[in-house]
Design goal:
Layout lengths: L3 E4 L6 E4 L4 E5 L2 E7 L12 H11 L7 E7 L3 E7 L3 H11 L2 E4 L6 E8 L7 H10 L14 E8 L13 H8 L5 E5 L11 H6 L11 E8 L2 H11 L2 E6 L7 E4 L2 E4 L7 H201 L33 H25 L17 H35 L9
Antiparallel strand pairs: 1-13, 2-3, 3-12, 4-6, 4-8, 5-6, 7-8, 9-11, 9-14, 10-11, 12-13
Length: 587
């Protein structure tokens, strides 16, 4: 069993629970300190195994249950040993204390000191000071005062029923009731939900092991303080002894750790909290079981459905198999029928073959006569082809002549196109000069009209002044003579530069006409107050600006039609040239 050792001496055993075969035995430990020499050479070391063997040899005839090194430095080495009884420990101390040992390779002797080891166990002062200084403890409430003992690493098998190899809470309670009446007992390993409880996980109290069932932890809460003190004093410096009831009566010992509870593990609040957590987990467990049950039922239904589908598939396969057999039988009958028909056909073909042989003989005679006739026709065809070759050579010569004639026609057309292009340029230039001359005439005419209007205005003004000043002695002419330098004669009109094209020049002409003729008349009517402009100047038919726009549009249409005509002419000449060659006649 893990964590237990065989005990050969039970003389110091103290009864704990005789019915279970449990006893308490004092822990007999000692510490051995060996003074080490200074290492003067590099790479030289002291063997721990040799030191332990020397100590064991010095302790004879007594022996150690266990001997281990607990601390090792450059100056000393500290070992801890355990014996069966306290008497044996004292004898071993007398054998080892103030003795010396000598190691191989070292001239110096090593001093050895031995003393009884102190056992780590809480005292009354420890729990009194803890609960006195703790601020979150209330000594009036159980679990928050020194009344709970926490025992760890107890062997599970020793606290089980004789017949059942399973830990029993009643057995544990009966064992610890030897120190006094137990108020409450908690074994975390027996609670299946303890490792899932959030309260336990959050408080950091997982000092017990859930994974293995070899050892367990237990919290024992006593009703009386004296029972708690009695338990702590009885378990101080003790280990658990188990004597089996079999014929050999073997004895085993196991070390256990005893502490007082510092975490309020068995307080009413903690118990209630764990109970609530347990109820929640039980509810979740029931829900999981219900879910598993539903899933199992669904799985059974699914399996049943699959089984039903499988049976249907089997029936379908059987039906298809029968159909296949029927089809195979029908195909066999069809093959037999076909074989019979084929035999009849073969017989009929043999009869036809004999009849055909007679026909072929007649055909062969006919073929010989036909070949004679074809040879005659072939000679006639040969002579006709010779004639055709001669005619084709003549046609090739004719094609060459026609090609030469076509080239001449193409050159003539190019020459005509060049002449036409020159005529167009001359006509365009002539038109441009005419437009320039017409523009100059219009300018002179507009200037002449303006001069006449100005002279009429001046004459009317002189007449009005003359009528006003009639009867006065001094007469001054209010008329202003027109300056010769400001007037421009028709001979001084500078012709406008030639526009880049006819469209740009036409737009300039339209703008001048519009400003000189239309805008002057409109401005004249604007000065008469609310008098409206005559509709004459708003109409589209008499508006010179719109007239010139129409002229431009007509010119664009003419140019577009001219381009379409040229394209059509090119296509016509192309197809005319392509189909102008005569097709030779073949006899």
């Amino acid at each position: 069993m893990a964590g237990t050792t065989i005990c050969s001496d039970t003389s110091e055993a103290v009864e704990l629970c005789k019915a279970q075969g449990l006893y308490l035995k004092p822990i007999a430990k000692l510490t051995v300190c060996v003074q080490l020499p200074k290492l003067k050479e590099m790479g030289k070391s002291i063997s721990n195994w040799e030191v332990m063997e020397k100590i064991k040899h010095m302790a004879k005839p007594h022996s150690f249950i266990s001997l281990k090194i607990i601390k090792s430095t450059m100056e000393f080495m500290r070992l801890e040993g355990e014996a069966e009884t306290k008497v044996e420990i004292k004898a071993i101390i007398q054998c080892l204390d103030s003795r010396t040992i000598k190691l191989s390779g070292f001239p110096e002797v090593l001093k050895v000191k031995a003393a009884e080891a102190k056992v780590s166990h809480p005292s009354q002062h420890d729990w009194d000071s803890f609960f006195r200084d703790a601020k979150n403890m209330n000594e009036m409430k159980p679990g928050e005062r020194p009344d709970t003992v926490h025992v760890k690493d107890l062997p599970t098998k020793w606290f089980s029923h004789r017949k059942k190899d399973r830990l029993s809470e009643q057995v544990v309670k009966r064992v610890f009731e030897n120190f006094g009446e137990v108020r409450c007992l908690d074994i975390p390993m027996l609670d299946p939900y303890r490792k899932e409880m959030t309260s336990v996980k959050s408080s950091g109290l997982q000092t017990f092991n859930y994974n293995t069932g070899i050892t367990f932890d237990v919290y024992v809460q006593y009703k009386e303080y004296i029972s708690f003190v009695k338990a702590m004093d009885s378990l101080r410096g003790m280990k658990l002894l188990y004597i089996a009831d079999d014929e050999e009566e073997k004895a085993y010992t196991a070390n256990m750790r005893v502490e007082f509870d510092k975490t309020k593990h068995l307080s009413d609040k903690s118990i209630k909290k764990r109970r609530m957590e347990r109820e929640k987990l039980e509810q979740l467990e029931r829900e999981r079981e219900e879910k598993v049950r539903r899933e199992r039922e669904e799985e059974e239904k699914r399996v049943e459905e699959e089984k039903r589908k499988k049976e249907e598939e089997e029936r379908e396969k059987e039906r298809k198999r029968i159909e296949k057999i029927e089809k195979r039988e029908s195909r066999r009958q069809a093959r037999e029928e076909k074989r019979r028909l084929k035999a009849l056909e073969r017989k009929r073909l043999e009869e036809e073959k004999q009849y055909q042989m007679k026909i072929q003989m007649e055909e062969r005679r006919f073929l010989i006569a036909q070949r004679k006739l074809e040879s005659i026709r072939l000679l006639g065809e040969l002579f006709s082809r010779i004639k055709a070759v001669k005619v084709s050579s003549d046609l090739v010569q004719r094609e060459i002549e026609l090609e030469e004639e076509r080239r001449n026609q193409v050159e003539e057309e190019k020459r005509l196109k060049e002449e036409m292009k020159k005529r167009k340029l001359e006509a365009k230039k002539r038109r441009k000069e005419e437009l320039l001359h017409h523009e100059t005439e219009l300018r002179e005419k507009i200037l002449k009209n303006w001069k006449e209007k100005e002279e009429k205005k001046e004459e009317a003004m002189r007449e009005r002044l003359r009528l006003r000043l009639r009867g006065k002695k001094v007469l001054k002419s209010a008329a202003v003579k027109p300056s010769v330098s400001n007037m421009t004669t028709s001979s001084e009109v500078i012709p406008a530069p030639s526009p880049p094209d006819w469209r740009q020049r036409g737009e300039e002409w339209i703008r001048e006409e519009y400003e000189n003729k239309v805008l002057q008349r409109v401005n004249k009517f604007k000065g008469h107050g609310k008098q409206k402009v005559p509709r004459f100047y708003k109409s589209l038919h008499n508006n010179p600006h719109m007239e010139w726009k129409k002229r431009l549009k007509r010119k664009e249409v003419e140019m577009r039609r001219w381009k379409e005509w040229n394209e059509w002419k090119k296509q016509f000449l192309y197809w005319k040239h392509k189909f102008s060659f005569p097709v030779p006649y073949m006899e």
